[in-house]
Specification:
- This protein is an alpha+beta fold and 442 residues long.
- Helix content is 41%, strand content 20%.
- The chain is built from 14 helices and 22 strands.
- Strand 5 and strand 6 form a beta hairpin.
- Helix 2 crosses helix 7 and helix 5 packs across helix 8.
């Protein structure tokens, strides 16, 4: 099958003499196989290859991996470029790392005037991505996983391995006796993708060894449908959404499918690189707000985005941290105005006040995260009776400014279940007690 990839690159894509390409390479098996394949084409057509490497700076082995890759490039007349991520913010690590990585790749493409950026995503990656998006909820485009070719305007992102499996890549490496590095974290069950890779994919492949072909067809079908719907959406977007304001009356005259597409279009424009913070539930919340009978209302979304309905118009506003009052539904993940995050996680061994375990049969869902209100009280775990939230802040020596934006987790009956980082209510369970939801504050 790798021969088919070679044929695609030379015949269909048409790599030719003088073309400049950038290859994103970690040093792992997938990217090393791609780099080697492109280097073989280089021998025949004299293309100019730049190997772009990002040191994520989270493992002790990363500096040795960079040296390994530098040596490979020197031995094969390939230009080597690398960067090291010095620090991370408070966002989801994988999302932030991906954003920094692709921003860097884009700079290298621009520096060399490259025609293509190659990445080594393969068929197994596609299956994992589609399954994760289905489980989490996404858009029609999101459910398709990722495309083989993405037009970035000045250049194209090419994923030539999308039609071949991990096993075929490993066979290619063995056949050519190629060395590569192994990231031990790829075996850790704490990462969602790893669990799909270790447990779900083997089951699917036992059911059908060519399951990847079905997923590729599924992906391509969704992409075609999505492209058609986008064409329909763009034909009416300028009349419905102008200068950041949605005309609700015109919006409601459209087909439901086009309406949702417009909502996702707006979210994509507002969130851009932070779009991974958005789930399909957020789009549904916006839609419910639009069709509600309330003439004036608002909801909050991640990153302190406020969605405001005012009679026949809807706008999304990014509020400053100085704005104190907020209330956000806890679906999966919230980036809070105080710079912290609250996330529902699969497991956590912690026992401190930064972890909350709940039995959903004892509370009323959904959960919300809000700021304090006059008269707030909580039944504190380990104490008799209730205590004023105001007194808890005073006891914990929380400044007045921090009190105003400190998160408080409540259920749908407005019962306080947790003050993250400070105190737990009597509803919060110990590790060995029955619970079916774990929330992390970090």
């Amino acid at each position: 099958m790798v021969k088919e990839v070679y044929k695609y690159l030379v015949c269909e894509l048409g790599l030719k003499y003088g073309d400049t390409i950038v290859v994103g390479v970690s040093g792992g098996p997938d990217s090393m196989a791609l780099l080697h394949l492109l280097s073989q084409i280089k021998k025949e057509t004299d293309i100019f290859i730049i190997c772009a490497h990002v040191d994520h700076n989270v493992r002790n082995e990363s500096s040795r991996e960079r040296e390994f890759l530098q040596k490979y490039c020197d031995n094969n007349q390939i230009t080597f470029e690398s960067m090291k991520i010095d620090d991370y913010g408070d966002d989801n690590f994988h999302n932030e790392a991906r954003t920094k990585r692709y921003n860097y790749f884009g700079k290298i493409v621009k520096k060399y005037g490259a025609k293509y950026l190659f990445t080594a995503h393969h068929a197994d990656d596609l299956i994992e991505t589609i399954l994760m998006r289905i489980a989490r909820g996404s858009t029609l485009r999101g459910y398709s996983g990722f495309s083989k070719v993405v037009n970035m305007g000045d250049y194209k992102i090419i994923r030539p391995f999308i039609s071949i499996t991990k096993d075929e890549i490993i066979d290619y490496l063995r056949h050519h006796n190629l060395s590569y590095v192994q990231d031990a974290s790829n075996n850790e069950d704490k990462y969602t993708r790893n669990r799909y890779r270790k447990y779900v994919l083997p089951f699917l492949k036992r059911e059908d060894p060519n399951i990847h072909e079905k997923f590729i067809k599924f992906s391509n079908t969704l992409i075609e449908y999505n492209n058609f719907i986008e064409e329909q959406m763009h034909s009416c977007i300028n009349d419905t959404y102008k200068q950041g304001v949605l005309n609700i009356e015109k919006f409601l005259n459209l087909n439901k499918l086009i309406r949702m597409k417009i909502i996702y279009y707006i979210l994509e424009n507002v969130y851009q690189d932070d779009l991974m913070l958005i789930y399909d539930k957020h789009a549904e919340l916006i839609y419910d707000l639009i069709i509600s009978k309330r003439p004036n209302a608002y909801i909050y979304l991640p990153n302190n985005i406020k969605v405001v309905k005012a009679y026949d118009s809807l706008t999304l506003i990014r509020e400053s941290i100085e704005h104190h009052e907020y209330e956000i539904e806890l679906i999966n993940y919230i980036n809070l105005p105080n710079g912290k995050n609250i996330e529902i996680v699969d497991k956590d061994e912690g026992t401190g006040n930064d972890v909350c375990r709940l039995d959903t049969s004892e509370i009323k869902l959904p959960l919300y995260v809000r700021t304090r209100r006059v008269g707030d009280r909580m039944d504190v775990k380990g104490m008799l009776g209730s205590k004023k939230v105001k007194d808890i802040f005073i006891d914990e020596k929380i400044s007045s400014a921090d009190r105003d934006i400190w998160p408080i987790v409540v259920d749908s009956s407005d019962k306080i279940v947790w003050i993250p980082g400070l105190k737990k209510s009597k509803l919060v369970k110990d590790k060995d007690e029955k619970h079916d939801i774990i929330i992390k504050y970090y």
